[in-house]
């Protein structure tokens, strides 16, 4: 192999691979500090690069690769904490039930899967639309109360609710 072909293979290296090589260690350290869990950090770093692989065309034009990776990782962290909060709420609910009302392992699995699907669905909504939908459907607040709490108009709350119901209908098909 000539020197010219060797340098050509280095310059034509996969941009995602170069991004990974240059920044994986940094990202892993950042996530370790945020999670205080090396295994969880490794999982989220992996998931971050999986997301990068879903849009490899964006990588060659990156001016701030660490900002790009941080944005992806932050979203994954948010999802992680939301899932964790949901799981803790479920465990708290189970702990508060009388022993004779505790669901079987099969029922528990079914409930957890349903909660995960609901969380995934709500995750597709914009944050304020998600909050409006939860306030209405889970806390029973009226549109005027939601509007006051979110500091938006009732019309905006109606739009948010329509988005939530439309997503529910779409997922039922």
Describe this structure in words.
The chain is an all-alpha fold and 173 residues long. The protein is built from 8 helices and no strands. α4 runs antiparallel to α5, α6 runs antiparallel to α7 and α6 packs across α8. It starts with a helix and ends with a helix. The N terminus is likely disordered.
Summarize this structure briefly.
With 173 residues, the protein is mostly helical. The protein has 8 helices and no strands. Mean pLDDT is 87; it is low at 1-10.
Topology:
Blueprint: H1 3-11, H2 15-35, H3 38-54, H4 65-96, H5 105-123, H6 127-137, H7 143-150, H8 154-172
Structural class: mainly alpha
* Helix/strand order: HHHHHHHH
* Sheet with most strands: none
Query: Radius of gyration over alpha carbons?
Result: 22 Å
Shape: globular
What is the share of helical residues? over 70%
% residues in beta strands = under 5%
Give me the number of helical elements.
Answer: 8
Q: Gap between N and C termini, in Å?
A: 57 Å
Q: Low-confidence stretches at least 5 residues in length (pLDDT < 50)?
A: 1-10
Q: What integer is the average pLDDT?
A: 87
Number of DSSP E strands: 0
Features of this protein?
173 residues; mainly alpha; disordered N terminus
């Amino acid at each position: 192999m000539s020197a010219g072909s060797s340098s050509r293979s280095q310059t034509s290296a996969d941009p995602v691979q170069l991004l990974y090589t240059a920044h994986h260690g940094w990202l892993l350290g950042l996530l370790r500090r945020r999670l205080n869990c090396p295994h969880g950090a490794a999982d989220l770093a992996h998931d971050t690069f999986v997301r990068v692989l879903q849009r490899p065309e964006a990588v060659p034009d990156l001016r701030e690769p660490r900002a790009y990776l941080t944005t992806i990782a932050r979203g994954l962290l948010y999802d992680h904490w939301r899932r964790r909060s949901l799981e803790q709420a479920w465990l708290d609910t189970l702990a508060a039930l009388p022993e004779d009302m505790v669901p079987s392992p099969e029922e528990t699995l079914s409930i957890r899967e349903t909660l995960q699907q609901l969380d995934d669905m709500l995750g597709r909504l914009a944050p304020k639309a998600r909050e409006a939908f939860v306030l209405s459907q889970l806390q029973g607040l009226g549109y005027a109360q939601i509007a006051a709490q979110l500091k938006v108009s009732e019309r905006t709350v109606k739009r948010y609710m329509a988005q939530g119901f439309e997503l529910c209908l779409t997922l039922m098909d």
